[in-house]
């Protein structure tokens, strides 16, 4: 029967016709469906030499066993198991994948039999297996190791193990049975075998010994990675444990004597030292050591046991380094993981119970590994694999060291300071060029005039975690880090002045190697300084780190506040030129260094030397100014139990220092937007800085008082060169500032300067008599795009205080946008912006009164009709057009959803109802308009599909009566048809099925409560009684929703 298949595999491809190959495939497909295939498979195994055929035959035996287990007698199973065992033992030349397939079948048989014989056959098999491994015959050793590996696989991964036709709970029961009885015995056997091998095997390891050693270490690794569960957990929780691919070592109490034996840890360290130069073996020994470092649970429940185990592990860890000269790159990550696991699984309080000398040696070794990994990562090319490995190892060891220093035992308190200084200095040296650093001394330095050009991800993002930890380390030794950073910064700024003057005098407009290297230094000094001075990752209010505040307080007796203010307010003057500059507050001095570089950039731009600036450093300086502004500027004194007077004078509310700083930052923002608008990253960071200055009421009030604010207003009105996003962000910030005006008169005066010029520019274009002739002109189109972006910024900047005035300003704009859409309906970018403008305006609907809402509803209906008028029936013949329409319809759906929230807020606030159109009425009317555009192809876009069903389900849940009495009936029919699509055709969006079920439940519940079956939708939902036929593989995900819908429907139609 298999002759044709044999022929196809043995013959060259050019001699096998397509018909023959298809015939062979058909034969084998039929072969897989055979019932009781055991005799046939035996025959094939005994006679065929084609390994793929042997592999498939073994697979068929497996499937037959699973399928027909209940029909087979005990004797049949025993005979089959014996045959397979004999076959594997007698055919020692089998390919590994065939052998593994057959021993997998043997493992499945043993596992199934253990239900009835409580593991008797399993114990017999293990005895045979151990005999194979100790026989000295390499082939038999491989067979024995394969059998052990197959048993571990079948018993360990109960969630992923072979489906042998048993309930999941039985799988778990068998795993526990195996765990308690044989798993420890296998582990002890492997340990004994490894002990014998390590003493007898020479170095380098012969191939025959290496194979056995690899299999034994792999088996041990699998046992150490075993997901031990000591209690009977519910199925769902067990699944969580089993799905953990990197579980910690948590054996049961029966393992206590074995796992706490000091020789176990010692064995693996000695084994690693012996085979460390073989990457294939060393990888597994390191994994074993990492797992041993994570020991926890009941076997070390007593503190004495944990301390003793930790002591033994650290001693062997340190002893290992006495036997190795240099760390291999492949080892670095393993060693760092050992340190991290030790400090995670063994609380820092346990370290206090260790011998002080041992703890100090361990701490020193961590620092040595940290600095070694750090330097090694910088000696390699950034794209080198070894550099990535060392960088990750550096992160892990640094993280481990920081966990010790955060709450260090007394034994290492003295060592903590010197090691923190050493690590901080090493990081700075790695990132600076000679003579202060080592960057570029190993031939690893790239062209610094191209920094940031080769990688879209900035250094502050790529190295975010490392910089954050280094910043934390610097804050632990502020008396060292702050003066050092200030000195380095001031030295680079002085050299930068000279280099720019040199380039200007030479008339050279390029950044050469020297200047590029200098910029790279400044770039890293800025990143490190900002991370030392402040930590802010979004969310909570940024406050000055306690270490910085305490350091500033401690220096208060040595600080002259007036001198500190003079240093801060003199960004164009070298610090050394200011009398008494040594008495400057160290925190203010470092911040002033950042300000000085910002001033250098501003003056270089004014002198026409902007081409000599580094865009990457410009971006970094703006980011650092954001951090400083968020943390220091207009600081809230109530947030601190004690506060430095110098910081209050420099950055406190209503202080002269804060006023000067705010105006200085606005000048820098204006300079960037004027001169560096062609650099998107710089512009984005600049707008982000502006947002930081107005995001709080007190800061915005300070901005309102700045003389430079009106220059910023003029810039918004006059500049056409800003990127669209920048126009939006700029106008948003200006509107936010307007909300801080003290009275209506001053606010009106402010709006006349900010909003009126925007309105005038818009009216000037839209009211041109020849607009329909010149609308396609690029200059006009760009002006329109710029203006719409500004309008969106106006909406985004509105608040509860200003929303009424803002909407009054926007009313004529909303009406004119409809005509603008009519003109530019063939320009997708403008259409999308107009729709986005409406969607953003809809967000403020909750704060409008009924009359204003009516206007907004009407204008939204107008824009829906205009868009549908130009797009209904449009033929889509390009993928790009389909995506454009998807974006447009998604924006329209978001518009409807945003307006619907108006009614939700009214319900929550308890606003009295009025005899007006509701948001739900508008949304349904709008749906009726755009429904013809909702094709099946568009609904295949997950985000649009999800938004559509969220919208209709929300309306149904809050306003089921409106859904039940839809008019026209065409909309009702469309809704029902879309529900059926959501339950059947649309795949890949799991929430859609649930939303459809919620829709059905809401309708049924409403009709039952009102006892009104005369509504038009009553008969339309009857077909959904077949909801159970609508789902296939998604049943598990939405099981509750399905049953809930069925219960509602059955109850509903029986009433």
From TrEMBL:
Listed Gene3D superfamilies: Leucine-rich Repeat Variant
Sorted UniProt keywords: Cytoplasm, Nucleus, Protein transport, Transport
One GO cellular component term: cytoplasm
Subcellular location: Cytoplasm; Nucleus
Record-level Gene Ontology MF annotations: nuclear export signal receptor activity
Lineage: superkingdom: Eukaryota
Keyword Chaperone on entry: no
PANTHER family hit by this protein: EXPORTIN 4,7-RELATED, EXPORTIN-4
Name this protein carries in UniProt: Exportin-4
Protein species of origin: Lepeophtheirus salmonis
């Amino acid at each position: 029967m298999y002759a044709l298949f044999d022929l196809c595999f043995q013959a060259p491809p050019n001699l096998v016709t397509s018909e023959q190959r298809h015939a062979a495939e058909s034969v084998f497909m039929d072969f897989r469906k055979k019932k009781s295939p055991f005799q046939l498979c035996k025959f094939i195994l005994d006679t065929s030499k084609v390994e793929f055929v042997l592999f498939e035959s073994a697979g068929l035996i497996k499937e037959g066993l699973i399928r027909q287990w209940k029909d087979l007698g005990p004797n049949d199973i025993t005979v089959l198991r014996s045959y397979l065992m004999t076959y594997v033992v007698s055919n020692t030349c089998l390919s590994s994948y065939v052998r593994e397939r057959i021993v997998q079948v043997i493992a499945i048989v043993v596992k199934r039999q253990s239900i009835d014989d409580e593991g008797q056959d399993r114990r017999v098999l293990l005895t045979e297996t151990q005999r194979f491994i100790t026989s000295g015959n390499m082939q038999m050793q491989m067979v024995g190791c394969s059998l052990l590996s197959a048993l571990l696989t079948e018993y360990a991964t109960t969630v992923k193990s072979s489906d042998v036709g048993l309930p999941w709970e039985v799988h778990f029961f068998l795993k526990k049975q195996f765990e308690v009885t044989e798993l420890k015995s296998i582990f002890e056997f492997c340990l004994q075998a490894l002990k014998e091998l390590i003493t007898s095997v020479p170095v380098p390891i012969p191939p025959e010994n290496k194979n056995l050693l690899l299999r034994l270490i792999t088996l041990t690794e699998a046992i150490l990675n075993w997901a031990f569960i000591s209690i009977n957990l519910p199925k769902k929780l067990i699944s969580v444990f089993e799905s953990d691919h990197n579980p910690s070592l948590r054996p049961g109490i029966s393992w206590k004597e074995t796992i706490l034996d000091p020789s176990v840890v010692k064995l693996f360290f000695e084994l690693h030292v012996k085979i460390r130069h073989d990457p294939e073996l060393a990888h597994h020994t390191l994994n074993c050591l990492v797992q041993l470092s994570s020991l926890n649970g009941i076997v070390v429940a007593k503190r004495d046991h944990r301390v003793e185990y930790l002591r033994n592990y650290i001693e062997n860890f340190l002893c290992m380094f006495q036997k190795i000269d240099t760390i291999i790159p492949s080892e670095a990550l393993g060693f760092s993981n050992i340190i991290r696991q030790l400090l995670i699984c063994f609380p820092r309080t346990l370290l206090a119970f260790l011998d002080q000398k041992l703890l100090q040696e361990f701490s020193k070794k961590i620092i040595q590994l940290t600095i070694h990994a750090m330097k090694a990562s910088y000696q390699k090319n950034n794209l080198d694999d070894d550099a990535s490995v060392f960088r990750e190892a550096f992160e892990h060891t640094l993280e481990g060291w920081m966990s010790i220093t955060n709450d260090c035992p007394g034994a290492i308190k003295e060592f903590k300071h010197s090691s923190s200084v050493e690590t901080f200095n090493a990081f700075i040296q790695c990132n600076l060029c000679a003579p202060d650093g080592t960057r570029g001394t190993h031939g690893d330095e790239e062209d610094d005039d191209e920094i940031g050009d080769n990688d879209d991800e900035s250094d502050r993002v790529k190295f975010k975690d490392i910089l954050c930890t280094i910043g934390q380390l610097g804050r632990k030794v502020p008396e060292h880090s702050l003066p050092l950073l200030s000195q380095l910064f001031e030295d680079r700024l002085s050299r930068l002045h000279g280099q720019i003057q040199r380039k200007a005098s030479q008339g050279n407009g390029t950044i050469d190697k020297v200047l590029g290297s200098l910029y790279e230094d400044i770039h890293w000094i800025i990143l490190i300084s900002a991370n030392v001075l402040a930590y802010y990752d979004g969310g909570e209010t940024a406050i000055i780190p306690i270490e910085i505040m305490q350091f500033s307080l401690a220096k208060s007796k040595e600080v002259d506040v007036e001198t500190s203010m003079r240093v801060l307010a003199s960004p164009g003057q070298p610090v050394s030129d200011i009398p008494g500059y040594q008495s400057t507050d160290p925190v203010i001095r470092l911040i002033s260094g950042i300000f000085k570089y910002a001033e250098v950039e501003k003056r270089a731009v004014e002198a026409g030397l902007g081409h000599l600036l580094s865009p990457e450093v410009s971006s970094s300086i703006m980011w650092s100014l954001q951090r400083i502004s968020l943390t220091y500027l207009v600081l809230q004194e109530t947030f601190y139990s004690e506060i430095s007077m110098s910081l209050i004078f420099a950055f406190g509310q209503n202080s002269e220092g804060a006023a000067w700083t705010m105006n200085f930052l606005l000048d820098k923002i204006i300079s960037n937007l004027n001169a560096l608008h062609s650099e998107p990253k710089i512009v984005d960071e600049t707008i982000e800085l502006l947002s930081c200055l107005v995001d709080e009421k007190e800061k915005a009030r300070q901005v309102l008082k700045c003389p430079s604010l009106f220059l910023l207003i003029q810039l918004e009105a006059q500049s056409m060169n800003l990127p669209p996003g920048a126009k939006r962000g700029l106008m948003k910030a200006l509107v936010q500032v307007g909300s801080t005006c003290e009275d209506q008169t001053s606010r009106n005066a402010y709006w006349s300067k900010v909003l009126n010029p925007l309105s005038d520019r818009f009216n000037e274009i839209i009211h041109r008599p020849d607009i329909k002739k010149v609308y396609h002109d690029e200059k006009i189109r760009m002006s329109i795009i710029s203006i719409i972006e500004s309008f969106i910024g106006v909406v985004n900047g509105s608040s509860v205080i200003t929303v009424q005035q803002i909407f009054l300003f926007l009313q004529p704009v909303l009406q004119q946008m409809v005509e603008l859409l009519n003109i530019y309906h063939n320009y997708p970018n403008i259409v999308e912006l107009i729709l986005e403008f409406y969607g953003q305006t809809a967000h403020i609907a909750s704060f409008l009164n009924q009359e204003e809402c009516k206007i907004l509803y009407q204008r939204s209906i107008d824009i829906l009709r205009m868009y549908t008028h130009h797009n209904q029936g449009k033929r889509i013949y390009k993928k790009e057009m389909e995506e454009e329409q998807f974006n447009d319809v998604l924006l329209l759906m978001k518009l409807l959803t945003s307006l619907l929230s108006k009614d939700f807020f009214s319900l929550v606030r308890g606003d009295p109802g009025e005899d007006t159109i509701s948001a739900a009425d508008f949304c349904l009317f709008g749906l009726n308009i755009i429904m013809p555009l909702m094709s099946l192809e568009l609904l295949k876009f997950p985000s649009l599909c999800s938004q559509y069903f969220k919208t209709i389900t929300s309306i149904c849940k809050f306003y089921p009566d409106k859904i039940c009495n839809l008019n026209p009936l065409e909309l009702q029919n469309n809704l029902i048809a879309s529900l059926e699509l959501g339950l059947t055709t649309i795949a890949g969006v799991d929430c859609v099925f649930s939303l459809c079920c919620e829709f059905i439940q809401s309708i049924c519940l409403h009709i039952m409560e009102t006892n009104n079956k005369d509504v038009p939708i009553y008969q339309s939902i009857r077909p959904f009684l077949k909801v159970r036929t609508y789902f296939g593989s998604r049943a598990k995900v939405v099981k509750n929703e399905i049953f809930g819908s069925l219960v509602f429907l059955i109850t509903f139609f029986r009433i």
